[in-house]
Amino acid sequence: YPGVWLFVAGVAVGLRWLAGWGGWARVPAGERAAFVAGLVTLWLSLDWPLGPIAAGYLASAHAFQFLIVTMFAAPLLLLGARTGSAEQLARTFTSPGTCRAGRILVHPIVAAIIFNVIVAGTHMPSVVDGLMPTAAGAFVVDAAWLAGGLLFWWPVLMPVPVIARFGDPLKILYLLIGTLFHTVIGMVMLSAEMPLYGIYELAPPIVGIPVRADQQLAGGIMELGVFGAIVLASAFLFFRWARRDGAAH
Questions:
Q1: d(CA 132, CA 196)
Q2: Which pTM does this prediction carry?
């Protein structure tokens, strides 16, 4: 899908501009690999075959796509944009026009609220059934997921702006509390007796999965998949905090 390629290319250009064009030469190999992995992951989640299957055939594919975009592609892209971005971002966040608005937008409480509003809105049956049947509507959902994911992970991964007293312990708490709404969505999908989404209920069968089983699988992905990604990130932050605390003593 050329539209997907253009979107991914636009994301790459936008993040490299944000990090500063000259910063790529100073980026460590690990961060370069993270950036490339984020772009590849985003592309694979949106292009054929997962993209069209998630758009109109399987609710489980839709949930899996959400998991990849928000919990893997978004943080990988930010990790790849860290080095070389501090000076560029510092200028952005200290300019009179964007300082206050930017700091408010990426504040952990605000970022978590916006992210969860996006999660709730893009999983409402009326929104899914209204947007997913068209390419433009599916693009709106995908772009909202990526924007929400980037915003959610920003306070955890990016060096600018510096948020006072927001160390690794609070980052772990932020990740755990900030994704609790996924549990609610997952539980609703798992416990619903009837299909929630008309587009997946009426879709032509492609793999022989019953509609309710597909919806329950989607609920499991929302609940356990997101939780697993958060646990991995929290474990990394915990061990980093423990190592720093041990070195300080």
A1: 14
A2: 0.93
